[in-house]
TrEMBL record, chain A:
This is Putative DNA-binding domain-containing protein. Signal peptide: none annotated. It holds the Pfam family DUF2063. Residues 1-28 are annotated as: Disordered. It comes from Thalassovita gelatinovora (Thalassobius gelatinovorus). InterPro entries: DUF2063, DUF2063_N_sf. The lineage of its organism: Bacteria, Pseudomonadati, Pseudomonadota, Alphaproteobacteria, Rhodobacterales. Residues 2-93 form the Putative DNA-binding domain.
UniProtKB/TrEMBL annotation, chain B:
Pfam families: MbnB_TglH_ChrH. InterPro entries: MbnB/TglH/ChrH, Xyl_isomerase-like_sf. It comes from the Bacteria. Transmembrane segments: none annotated. Belongs to the UPF0276 family. It comes from Thalassovita gelatinovora. This is UPF0276 protein TG4357_03146.
């Protein structure tokens, strides 16, 4: 019996228990093998449930169980570092045709994965807001913002901030009819979520991709630059300002 | 090449660290002298887990216990994972590093469980090669833990104590003796747990584990114990601990409680019971 056979039978309960596994009297292992099957299936499902609590609530216990079992069989973890598990869970959900009516679900899962990444991201020294205030206005146009590794932006056409809140807290307000892209920041050790307008999300996406402020504003003319910069500074989201030399 | 001390953990009780106990441990550790962490939970880049671990390491000796290296795997060790382990051991400088006689990764899939292997000449050589590689990379002597077993392999040609003794002899690694695992395996595979202890290379034991188990039955109605780490250590396991300590003398002794984690007072009471068992035997 090879570990390939063991692994195949472990992840697929329809497979027979591999030969050569016995009890102490030499009888076939039977239910004893199921202990390992159960450990694998339950521990991976629980890892997903812990990592995607709102996604799990939105699907309901039985649906989540089905989706999670399908995912862990199709895409078991690639690494023993379980904090990374679920990086493809949102894409997996998006490809399930029976979940098409829950169009927002993949974006909620992306948001939850982003929160986990933010939680474990490196600690950095963030900039003193005065540094920005001291930068001359024309220089500011040529400035690029350097973001803390804990910052994540989840673009979405759905009100995912409110959907997540409502999934985790029945008393939360009903989701609005407008989109809510979300900025994830980590001012100290706990990730914080900020619903954005589409215009502000566009602006932050440009800044995250390394665009200079003036250029980013051109791409998102409706964005509220002052509000976005204020939010980034207040949330310790920036590590540096890099002003390109005037030409 | 590496530090030959089996461990620098004190021969006193420790507990498996859970973040929910962070403040309580710092306020009132009771008889807990050291902490054990699962290596894989501290492989992020930063944030609260790393910050809390740095702080705890200022106060307590830390044992790093890996659950994902797959030392018993048929395929090559995951060198990325080995590098992460080295990084953790380098910055934390733990009092001990240990892993399992088990496999968990195959064909790049990590199965998140400690899976069993037969004990043969072939697996002995492979386990020894992997341990040599681990000790070379991290530059420390490691401890290898005996597994809990639910089934037997028709192919096995060594019993477990003999297999582990041979691994320790060939690789110069130390051993981690999980007393609950002995009780679970002995019940499941119908052998005498005291005879297992008597056959074990006790002079190589750098750490002892204790944990709770659940009770089930196999297809024939025979008892099937599950190593769940979700409750108090069972009374017969405490009795077996006394049998170990009578022969080995006091050793660093850990309480593991990983699921349905209790409040700090309950866990600290288990550690106090281990402290009583340890003080009963002469050093």
């Amino acid at each position: 019996m090879t570990q390939t056979e063991f692994r195949t039978a472990l992840l697929d309960p329809s497979q027979p228990v591999p030969n050569g596994l016995t009890d102490s009297a030499g009888r076939p292992a039977g239910k004893r093998f199921s202990v390992y099957r159960n450990n694998v299936a339950v521990s991976l499902k629980e890892a997903l449930e812990t990592g995607f609590p709102a996604t799990a609530r939105l699907l309901g216990t039985r649906n989540f169980e089905t989706v999670a079992q399908g995912y862990l069989r199709a895409q078991p973890p690639k690494s023993p570092v379980m904090m990374l598990y679920g990086d493809s869970f949102a894409d997996y959900i998006a490809a399930i045709s029976s979940l098409e009516s829950l169009g927002y679900l993949p974006d909620v899962a992306r948001l939850e994965y982003a929160m986990r990444q933010s939680y474990h991201a490196a600690d950095v020294t963030t900039i003193d807001p005065a540094q920005l205030a001291e930068t001359a206005p024309d220089a500011l146009n040529r400035a690029r913002l350097m973001f803390a590794p804990a910052v994540r932006l989840i673009r979405s056409d759905w009100p995912i901030w409110s959907i997540r809140e409502k999934a985790l807290n029945a008393d939360a307000l009903a989701p609005p009819g407008t989109a809510q892209p979300v900025l994830v920041t980590r001012p100290h050790y706990d990730p914080e979520l900020h619903p954005l307008t589409q215009a502000d999300a566009r602006l932050i996406a440009s800044l995250l991709s390394g665009a200079m402020l003036a250029e980013a504003m051109t791409r998102a003319p409706d964005a509220d630059l002052g509000q976005v910069i204020g939010l980034l500074l207040a949330q310790s989201a920036l590590t540096d300002i890099d002003v390109e030399d005037a030409t | 090449m590496f530090d030959h001390a089996k461990t620098t953990l004190p021969a006193a009780p420790g507990v498996g660290y859970k973040p929910q106990h962070y403040s309580d441990i710092l306020t009132d550790p009771g008889s807990v002298s050291w902490l054990e962490i699962h290596a894989e939970n501290y492989m992020g880049d930063g944030g609260r887990p790393i910050a809390q671990l740095r702080h705890l390491a200022d106060r307590f000796p830390i044992s790093v216990h890996g659950v994902g290296l797959s030392i018993g795997g048929e395929t090559a060790l995951d060198t990325d994972h080995l590098t992460r382990l080295k990084h953790l051991c380098d910055w934390l400088n733990p009092a001990s590093f240990s892993e399992h006689l088990a496999w968990s990764t195959h064909d790049s899939a990590f199965l998140n469980d400690l899976l069993p292997l037969p004990y043969t000449q072939t697996t002995l050589q492979r386990v020894c090669d992997h341990i040599d590689q681990v000790q070379d990379v991290i530059g420390r002597r490691m401890l290898l833990e005996n597994p809990s077993s639910y089934l037997a392999f028709a192919a096995s040609s060594y019993d477990e104590p003999a297999f582990l003794a041979e691994v320790a002899k060939r690789t110069d690694c130390g051993l981690l003796l999980d007393v609950n695992n002995i009780f679970v395996s002995a019940t499941n595979l119908n052998y005498d747990p005291c005879a297992y202890v008597d056959a074990f290379a006790l002079d190589q034991v750098g750490e002892i584990h204790l944990g709770g188990h659940d009770e089930d039955q196999d297809d024939h109605g025979a008892p099937l114990l599950i190593d769940s780490h979700g409750r108090e250590v069972a009374d017969p396991v405490w009795t077996l601990l006394d049998h170990v300590l009578d022969r080995a003398g006091p050793r660093p002794t850990l309480i593991e409680w990983d699921t349905d984690v209790p409040d700090w007072a309950t866990l600290a009471a288990e550690a106090s019971r281990a402290a009583a068992a340890l003080t009963r035997v002469p050093a």
